Amino acid sequence: MSASLPTSSRRDAMLADAAGLAERHAALLGPAWRSELTGWIVAAALFALFCFGLWQLGFTFTMLTHGGSQMLVILQVMLPPNPETWARVVFYLGQLAETLGIAFLGTLIAAIIAFPLGFLAARNVVSNLFIHVIARRVFDTVRAIDVLIWALLWINVVGLGPFAGVLAIACSDIGSFAKLFSEAIEASDRKAVEGVLSSGGTWTQAVRYGVLPQVLPVITSQVLYYFESNTRSATIIGIVGAGGIGLSLSEMIRTVEWQQVSFIVVLMLITVSAIDYVSTLLRRSIIGPSSI
Amino acid sequence: MLEAGMLEATYASAVSARRMRSIQGAAVLIIAIGLACWAAEVRPLTLISKIGNFTSYIDRMFQLESGARVWTDPAEWFWGLWKWLGLLRDTLLMAYVGTLAGAFIGFLFCFAASSNLMKSKWVCQGFKRLLEFNRTVPELVFALLFVYAFGLGPVPGVIAIAIHTIGAMGKLFAEVVENIDMKPVEGIAASGGTWVQQIRFAVLPQVQTNFISYTLLRFEVNVRAAAVIGFVGAGGIGDELLTSIRRFYYSDVSAIIVMLILTVMVIDYCTEKLRHRLLGGEVHA
């Protein structure tokens, strides 16, 4: 009925019933002050906490201007990046190789250890709820400890050097991997497993032929992704003495060799971008472009 | 007969081709492992001979100086509770201030880095590269530099976190903005709205939940970062933890790590709840 009315007469009808409309749709037509007020209060609280933080952490205007001008001076001295001698370049490249080695081995060891743990924590493989919950909590705990803390702990055990870095990266990633793997396993299709079981396969065969082919691409892609992020971690664990290019970086900052510092930073950026590029290509070829 | 034979031959060749590829892949992997072991100076013998150190280290971490287990005397274990809680509060504030400042600047930058809003290709690419630089240089490297410029304390740590957050948030924000529906923007542009008005009334309503959700996620990440940024002297509880580890105050190490783990878990839990409420349980960002 109303749809057939010409627009102008519908408008007249609505205007005539303005009071009724306002009454029926009070929530929509009334002032939005309630939600706006909540928004402003939240914003004010966030801002107040921000100001308290600035005050508590000791931000002062003179400090910022002084530090800022100091930083500008450092930036000027840094440019252009200059390693000075070829021997230095070769040395840094060696440390970069060490960094990549640390990231690669750490990721691989974590993946190998986390693989069986992932099955243990997957609800559709081990149906015991108690084991499931405990395993998840343990993984969360391991994940909450930062790689740098692991590095410091392992340095106490195996001494300074890249090996401590490998173990640190492995430890910090076991938790994340086990959690991700178990999620991938839980998301897998049960039909393949049922097929293997119904044709007389054992439990191990069901996992090998029913679950593995489904989860292996996902897992490989996640491992590659973590290799990328571990390359970044491996560049900094040297700062606490666990091998890699970070060691040179912190030494050069301590000895105020700014051109060396910027050279190392540039090397780090190139390496990280190159690894990102290669790993994105690999992941794309493994699981297809859509799911990245 | 002949067909069956051909089929079998094709099958055999397909299988052997696959096997060949697997063998090649395995060979590449083994070579890579070998190279990495050589580069990273892996010494399995050292690990085996010193693994006892690790277990005894863990063991001593849960031992008081008197030799009793830590949980028998929690008051002695957490003797520095108030000092550590103060440091933890500073750590959380560092993460908070860094996240908020970084997210705000990232928010301002993201519109200039989105190809659908920024018509000038050069400006857009310039901002994208700037954001990439900010997030590729690790926080700890920024912190080392800033500690030199600003002096020891939380200030360089906060600035380092903020700069890294600008890069990470700006990129995510720009990706969200590049995926919006452009019709409202065109509507406002057609009725004479300025660039800022287009963003305020057409872009913001579409992206704000995602922006807040990403910022909360980043806060989680930054809490972890703020906890360790003290290792280079940039404030927070990391400095105290480093001292305890270097001076072999075993029970202090475990007490601080336990407090850190609890804090991280509580923060993760709270932000997850908040995000779910914000997203209304419909999308899992």
Describe the structure.
The complex is a heterodimer of chains A (292) and B (285). Chain A is an all-alpha fold and 292 residues long. Chain A folds into two domains: 46 residues, no CATH class; 206 residues, MetI-like fold (Orthogonal Bundle), CATH 1.10.3720.10. The radius of gyration of chain A is 29 Å and the shape is flat. Chain A starts with 6 loop residues before the first helix and ends in a 5-residue tail after the last helix. The mean pLDDT of chain A is 84. With 285 residues, chain B is mostly helical. Chain B folds into three domains: 41 residues; 28 residues, no CATH class; 207 residues, MetI-like fold. Chain B contains eleven helices and no strands. The mean pLDDT of chain B is 86.
Work out the number of β strands of chain A.
Answer: 0
User: What is the CATH architecture assignment of the largest domain in chain B?
Assistant: Orthogonal Bundle
- Termini separation of chain A comes to 51 Å
Within CATH, the superfamily of the largest domain in chain B carries the name MetI-like
Number of DSSP strand runs of chain B: 0
Provide the number of structural domains of chain A. Answer: 2
> What's the CATH architecture name of the largest domain in chain A?
Orthogonal Bundle
Q: Give, in order, the helices and strands of chain A.
A: HHHHHHHHHHHHH
> Mean pLDDT of chain B, rounded to whole units?
86
Low-pLDDT stretches of chain A: none
Q: How many distinct folded domains of chain B?
A: 3
Task: Classify the secondary structure makeup of chain B into a structural class.
Answer: mainly alpha
Could you report the average pLDDT of chain A, rounded to the nearest whole number?
A: 84
Relevant CATH superfamily of the largest domain in chain A: MetI-like
